[in-house]
Design brief:
Rossmann fold; 2 domains; alpha/beta; about 230 residues; two-stranded antiparallel sheet; 6-stranded parallel sheet; globular; 9 helices
Amino acid sequence: MNLPGIRLVLFDIDGTLIHTGGAGVQAFGRAFAAEFGEPGKTERLKFGGRTDTSLARELFSHHHIEPSPKNFERFFQAYLFWLRKLLGECVGGACPGVLDFYTTLQTLPQPPLIGLLTGNIRPGAQIKLEHFQLWEKFPFGGFGDDHEDRDQIAAVAHQRGSQRLGRELSGGEVLVIGDTPLDIRCARAIGARVLAVSTGTFSAAQLQEHQPDWVVEDLSKVSPEDRRVMFRQ
């Protein structure tokens, strides 16, 4: 089957673009303790590929806190405060190969549109990526405050990319890059192709079980041949 070239590339953030040295997880716990007076038991939560809203809802459930709009607002305001503070104390950075791969995309004869597909709420995504001087590279995306369900966030990012390009993109023209099985799942929900990277908590073998189109150790390992197949250039 002769698939079209990729016209839209959507990047996950945590474990794909950057590592924050645990700042995001710690900020969740600190925010919950500050606002609700007891330690947030983040060790119960599986963060990989999740949305911030679903994680906060699960934390509320563990502690019998009402998941009301007011409590979500309280929690996320505190979370953003702690995220800014803890990013300055944790050791992190861009994942291997990210900057060179981004440059490669920008220098293609027909560069694809590049955006984000993340479970982070938009202000949290901005804080994280600004800290590592990456935010300005991603002019749009789908975020955790667009929807609690990651599959729906993928649909939002797909729609926004289509609007920017002025036509409805087919799923085969979209590439999702992520480091978890949930990234693969949400890509399939919109019919997109998937480049999985083992720069997060899942190994290449674990990711391969979910049948992405490509699996690499990190973005520096994407071969010229794979790029030709992806972008038909």
